[in-house]
Write a structure and sequence with these properties.
By secondary structure, this protein is of the alpha+beta class. It has 11 helices and 13 strands. Strands 8-10-7-11-9-12-13 form a 7-stranded mixed beta sheet. It has a 4-stranded mixed beta sheet with strand order 3-6-4-5, covered by helices on one side. The protein has a two-stranded antiparallel sheet with strand order 1-2. It binds adenosine-5'-diphosphate (ADP) and magnesium ion (MG).
Length: about 325
């Protein structure tokens, strides 16, 4: 199977299901997209590298899902609606079965969110997957990191920490194996390898929330990006953080570490003024996504956590940094 046969067989689909937004898809020098007139184009790229972002033995179907999911999550965090994506793929070999499974995971998620593959590039090399997503958002409605205001409530979709616990179990870390136990791994691994991009919630929050981002490198560290960009501080109420059943048995310091520093959660973290509480609740219902108020934003700087006993202490994040 040559390069062009590979593309035709696995990534080029016979019909264009999105004629309104995709004038031309895979096969020409460029794809031609038609955004809604007057809307802004939202663009984001995320790369997954073997050994760094995933284990070499990960199932190809899960990898196809995750590669697109982490990109769609960025559109969600901006409040954008997907238009399409490109796929740059570096492969050690043209393995037909592997490619079929990868494409299955990729297209299942793409179809679920009406986000067609419109182009890409394919080369031989170490396994590396780079996706660029394009979406659209109405001007003034994008959920920017610099838009948090003192007095805002702080919210989180879903819950954090399970992907991190899965990772620690797979690494055989003592505290994780001793307290969660390996039987929990199958379910937790789903959270690590098959994250759910919160697109419907992000769309529903556009024009309602102030600032938002998707939590990929740890809740506390990622919140730090909003605080720095907006020039504000925040307090997280640890008692308000949703705790997954598998995390309940963990020693408190490790539980809090999973919740606040976890990574790979792909939940939305956002701020909204108290006057929008009903609108936020309505967005959660409309998108069938759990949303929890977990703290507040204040004038000043830095992040504090408030413990169940009411004491506040500064929290210095240990989010993931590739070059730290
Ligand atoms: P060019 O030489 O113009 O860069 P290529 O030969 O790399 O074009 O690709 C041919 C066509 O196939 C282009 O339309 C390109 O977007 C598409 N394509 C290549 N690789 C992929 C891929 N992995 N997924 C989707 N489309 C791809
Ligand atoms: Mg090319």
């Amino acid at each position: 199977m040559g390069e062009f046969e590979l593309i035709r067989r696995h990534f080029q689909r016979p019909t264009n299901s999105y004629p309104d937004t995709v004038a031309l898809g895979v096969g020409d020098d460029c794809a031609l997209l038609q955004p809604t007139p007057g809307w802004q184009l939202a663009v984001s790229t995320d790369m997954l590298v073997e050994g760094r972002h995933f284990f070499p033995d990960v199932a190809a179907e899960a990898l196809g899902h995750k590669a697109l999911a982490v990109n769609l999550s960025d559109l969600a965090a901006m409040g954008a609606r997907p238009l399409g994506f490109t796929l740059a793929l570096s492969l050690p070999a043209a393995d037909d079965a592997w490619l079929a499974a990868f494409a299955r995971g990729l297209f299942a998620l793409a179809d679920a969110h009406a986000c067609p593959l419109v182009g890409g590039d394919t080369t031989r090399g170490p396994l590396n997957i780079c996706i660029t997503v394009m979406g659209e958002v109405q001007p003034q409605q994008a959920l920017r990191r610099d838009a948090a205001r003192a007095g805002d409530d702080l919210y989180l979709s879903g819950r954090t920490g399970e992907a991190r616990l899965a990772l620690e179990l797979m690494r055989g870390t003592d505290w994780a194996v001793g307290h969660a136990g390996m039987p929990a791994l199958a379910q937790l691994r789903e959270r690590l390898e098959r994250p759910t991009p919160r697109l419907a919630l992000g769309r529903a929050l556009a024009g309602v929330a102030h600032a938002a981002l998707d939590v990929s490198d740890g809740l506390a560290g990622d919140l730090g990006h909003i605080l720095a960009a907006s020039g504000v501080g925040a307090v997280i109420d640890t008692a308000a953080l949703p705790v997954a059943p598998d995390l309940r048995g963990l020693p408190p310091e490790h539980r809090l570490d999973c919740l606040l520093n976890g990574g790979d959660d792909y939940e939305l973290l956002f701020t909204a003024p108290p006057a929008q509480r009903q609108a936020v609740a309505a967005a959660a219902v409309a998108s069938a996504t759990p949303v929890q108020r977990i703290g507040r934003v204040h004038a000043g700087a830095g992040l504090c956590v408030r413990e169940a006993d009411g004491r506040e202490r500064p929290w210095s994040p240990h989010g993931f940094d590739h070059f730290a």
